[in-house]
Amino acid sequence: MPGPGIVLNEAPWYRSLSCLVGPVLLFLMLLLGCLLLSITLGASELSWQQIVNLFTAQESGHVERVVWQLRLPRALLAAMVGIHFALAGFILQTLTRNPLADAGILGISAGASFTAVLAILGASLFVSGLESHRQSQMILGYLPLLAMAGGVTAAGLIYWLSGAARLTPLRLILTGVVLATILNALVTGVLALWGHSQTEMIVEWLAGSLHGRDWQHLAVLWPWTLSGLTACILLQRPLNLLRLEDDQVLSIGLNLRLWRLFALIVATLLAASAVGVVGPIGFMGLVVPHICRRLSPHDVQQQMLLCVAVGALLMMLADLLGRIIIVPYELPVGVVCAMIGVPFFLYLLRRQP
Amino acid sequence: MLLSLRYCLLIVALLVLLFVAALLVGHQTLTVPDLWLLVQGQATPLQKIVVWELRIPRNLLALLVGAALATAGAIMQGVTRNPLASPGLTGVVAGASFVIVLLVSVWSVDAHWLPAAGFVGGIGAGCLTFYLAWQGRLLPLRIVLAGVAVTALCAAISTALLLFSGAEAGDLFFWLAGGLSGRGWLQVEQSWYWIVFPMLLSFALVQRFNLLLLDDDIARSLGLAVGRWRLLFLLLAVLMTAAVVSVAGPVGFVGLVIPHISKRLLSQQHPFWLPFTALLGALILLCADLLARLSAFPQEIPLGVITALLGGPWLLLLIRRGLN
To answer: Over the stretch A126-153, which tens digit does the pLDDT of each residue have?
Structure first.
């Protein structure tokens, strides 16, 4: 039996979902509103009339290109990436029982960054001559995959170093923090030594940006989003139990090691695939789960659904803000998200006794 | 007591050896007889310049930086009772980096002014952290949270500035990786008093420090004004860290790892624990700087990379064995 003071949600799954129809509708409306705003606002001014005309097929050329080729895929990608980071953060925070865990703190983003930097520099170092530009472009096409492999490797290393099957949440997070710090130092060092002409490009990638992302990136990402969401449906009940102490989980009869490993793999794949496409964006995975837990304090299922909604909305808004704040320049979405982190920590500070 | 004396002697001996070795090796290799001639004033001008103008100030700076980081780390970990606390916990490192990135990328300020500016930025960030954390008294958890907030703010703006800095980004990255390459007497003169005096003060106040290591209630019942002394020690750590960052850039892991090593060698309650930690820090940093100079000769590896590669695995091992 669970310990005193902990409520386990044993109601059938549809009961907790049936009261969600209203919120889901609200979320969809908000999402649509955000999407429209993202399409309309930006460096190139479009009027509402032009947008309406676009959908009634009376507009072509410039407007069509800006909306279909630039802004729509970018906004959709922002929403997907937001979902990835929010869910990964939620799983990692539950898994480590630590409210400050996320993909950045646990070394997944750092691993992805390190491989990405090595890949970009390698592409410029080993390929030379006339063909160099085209070939390095080809290597850059594999960047999402390489970065993702780096993130997964880092997560595997952290899992192994923190004792594999004998892992404790505390050891997991300590190992993650240390490995992330080592990898970040290596990234800075490698950049300082061999960055040269590639520095600017790498800095932009490291800041976490949605600049220049299009349908192609969306096509890379959506299988991961879909499988991640499916895995999260499988995870909700075990995750509910993983919040408890290890002894209690075992006494309930959950295969602790197996589910912990599975949850870690899901979180890693979600985070690493997103980092691969847009670069390491911090703080989103940290802040969103807190918001969701505050909105729905007890129910893990609702919290997960909220993570999807809030993550998508917040990331889309952050990217929009970054695009319109210093037109015609762009503030990378990673920087905007870091700014969101500041009031968040001040809020945590205020809640301290 | 005898054992600790033996450790101290061993470390001092190693320090002297390493100091001399670091004077000899490099692009212009010298021999011991060369050095003897130099002391007597009969060396070639080139050798004089290499030793007096390049290697001696750099070695001195390495000693200062190592000792300061180790002491600041020990103070941070002791005062906040957090074994993972590092000198940058109060936002000092991020604050100094932010000001330097700002000055270089926006106003292209002359390099001569950067240490002073970084120092001021570090102190400012530290004070902001204390201001945010202050609530009649200074609680360790509040310091950590406020420090993270200040660090996040500074790091975000730095990243944005780096993006728009264009051509300066490469230089800035070399500074951000941390290192002692090209530092000379000027930097020693600019920073030594900000490092040495706070360090000596913290050594002198070791009894207060030992009480702060205890539980708040126990320390208070022993007659210590906990809040006031905690603030004083943190300020000392902030001063040392800001001075170090402003001359050497953010050098990680030294302040985090050295206190753990010295805790294994000597009891934390020992009256000479802090000086011992400082000595150990100086030794390790001198060693790391030598490695940074030599391992990719003739290029120089940023010091921050060396310390991360030396200190990181050690820390991982500690965690694997179980942090006390």
So the answer is: 665 555 566 656 666 778 888 889 999 9
Q: Is A201 within 8 Å of chain B by CB?
A: no
CA dist list (Å): A106 to A141, A186, B98, B130: 26, 16, 24, 27
Q: Are B115 and B65 in contact (CB under 8 A)?
A: no
Q: Which two tokens stand for residue A261?
A: 């490993």
Q: Which residue has the tokens 């979405």?
A: A333
pTM here is 0.84
In chain A, which residues have their Cβ closer than 8 Å to the Cβ of B173? Answer: 188, 191-192, 195, 199
SS (H, E, C) chain A: CCCCCCCCCCCCHHHHHHCCHHHHHHHHHHHHHHHHHHHHCCCCCCCHHHHHHHHCCCCCCHHHHHHHHHHHHHHHHHHHHHHHHHHHHHHHHHHHCCCCCCCCCCCHHHHHHHHHHHHHHHHHHHCCCCCHHHHHHHHHHCHHHHHHHHHHHHHHHHHHHCCHHHCCHHHHHHHHHHHHHHHHHHHHHHHHHHCHHHHHHHHHHHHCCCCCCCHHHHHHHHHHHHHHHHHHHHHHHHHHHHCCCHHHHHHHCCCHHHHHHHHHHHHHHHHHHHHHHHCCCCCHHHHHHHHHHHHCCCCHHHHHHHHHHHHHHHHHHHHHHHHHCCCCCCCCHHHHHHHHHHHHHHHHHHHCC
Question: CA torsion A286→A287→A289→A293, rounded to 10°?
Answer: 140
Quickly state the pLDDT bin for A4 (edges 50, 70, 90). very low
Q: How far is A15 from chain B (nearest CA, A)?
A: 39
For A194, the closest chain B residue by CA position comes to B170
B 188-247 → A contacts, CB under 8 A: none
Name the residue among B149, B176, B319 with its Cβ closest to that of A342: B149
Is the CB of A189 inside 8 Å of chain B's CB atoms?
A: yes
Q: How many Cβ contacts (< 8 angstroms) between chains A and B?
A: 129
Residue B183: DSSP 8-state: -
Quick: pLDDT tens for B166-215. 777 777 877 788 888 878 888 888 888 889 998 999 988 888 888 888 87
Phi, psi of B301 (to 5 degrees): -85, 135
Most B CBs within 10 Å: which of A181, A197, A290, as the mutation test of the B interface? Answer: A181
